[in-house]
Amino acid sequence: METADFETELSLFKYDNLEQLPPEYRDLDEDERTDRIEAARAELGDDVVVLGHNYQRREIVEHADFVGDSYQLSKEAANADAKYVVFGGVTFMAESADIITGDDQTVVLPSMEASCPMAGMAEALQVDAAWEEITAAAPDADIVPITYMNSYADLKAFCAEQGGLVCTSSNAHRAFEWAFERGDKVLFLPDKHLGENTTHRLGMADSVAEWDPWDPEGKDAEAAAEADIVLWDGYCQVHERFRVDHVEQVRERYEDANVIVHPECRREVVEAADVAGSTATITRTVADADPGETWAVGTEIHLTNHLSRWHPDVNVVPLCGDACMDCNAMRQIDPNYLTWVLEELVAGRERNVIEVAPEEKELAKVALDRMLEV
Ligand code: 13P
Ligand code: SF4
């Protein structure tokens, strides 16, 4: 059975992607694959650590040494002294792991197709052009750029160069505070919803401008110059899908339902929910729930399914039912790819290595280190 067939109905973009795999790896069944992954891991011993983001499939998280949110996993990568870090996640996470780990460590992404579309919504050239326009319109302002972890290394490097930093969904508010201690304006990229949710949390929502790099009408440098906070118009299609009526319906259906969502959801959804937080917060909150409680979860469907499996005494329901999506980027990490990259390491061949260019790496590390300070 080709595992890429699993849950294809949940994906916005329905394509199976095993083409990059040698043919003999495309049809492994789960038992055989599990045996082979375990054998390869035993052979590699302490030389390998496998990290799994909370949105990875069950067949990946079951083989991971650490499962967590993007912030926790970058810390695990930094602490790992293994020669190989195999990252069950998406490109920007593997890049961050490469930036943080030592030069003698190699980061492997099982499938090179696992690229977060939101990270791709703020390309270096677009950001450079926007920066030029905004700084020209506000020549006396100190603008501090902040990029969400969900961005590529070149953008992290750009932020460091311009006196800014990186944040995750759990420390975005602290990153904004850090920035306003050092400057008088913030340019936040690429997730406008996390940006908006953060400005509300800080009580700064009345001085915000949006910057849409794809729409000539959406790039108003004068408005950006007047605002305290400029939000780049990027978004996550998995999280934008949740609406307030999903919250209302779930509350109607389950009396005493608790609603928890990721801060990449729209502002009004976060406002209607009981709790908003990173995938680690979501995981912890459901783990701490009392038996019999209902938690409606507004995030990527694999995490909701894991929580339901891990906590059978809690009633875990997907916030928008069958309309909840998986992340197409995350699902590219097919367990057959994991088998392949591990067996190749055993054979002495490094496949799908993620390596950030040295000059970018140094700067991006500055932006990540600043985040670890806040
Ligand atoms: P976390 O940082 O909460 O793990 O989220 C990463 C992500 O990609 C959410 O869509
Ligand atoms: Fe990117 Fe959204 Fe997938 Fe997270 S869930 S990796 S933000 S596309």
Task: Describe what is shown at a glance.
The protein has 374 residues and is an alpha/beta fold. The chain is built from 16 helices and 13 strands. The longest helix is centred in the last third of the chain and has 16 residues, at 358-373.
Q: If classified by CATH, what would the architecture of the largest domain be?
A: 3-Layer(aba) Sandwich
For the biggest β-sheet, the strand order reads 6-5-7-9-8
List the ligand species. Answer: 1,3-dihydroxyacetonephosphate, iron/sulfur cluster
As a percent range, the share of helical residues equals 40-55%
Provide structural commentary.
- By secondary structure, this protein is of the alpha/beta class.
- The chain folds into three domains: 136 residues, NadA-like (Rossmann fold, 3-Layer(aba) Sandwich); 114 residues, NadA-like (Rossmann fold, 3-Layer(aba) Sandwich), CATH 3.40.50.10800; 77 residues, NadA-like (Rossmann fold, 3-Layer(aba) Sandwich), CATH 3.40.50.10800.
- The chain is 42% helix and 14% strand.
- The strands form three sheets. A five-stranded parallel sheet has the order 6-5-7-9-8, sandwiched between helices. Strands 2-1-3-4 form a four-stranded parallel sheet, sandwiched between helices.
- Strand 8, helix 9 and strand 9 form a beta-alpha-beta unit.
- Helix 1 packs parallel to helix 15 and helix 3 packs parallel to helix 4.
- It is globular, with a radius of gyration of 21 Å.
- The N terminus is likely disordered.
- 1,3-dihydroxyacetonephosphate binds next to helix 3.
- Iron/sulfur cluster (SF4) binds next to loops.
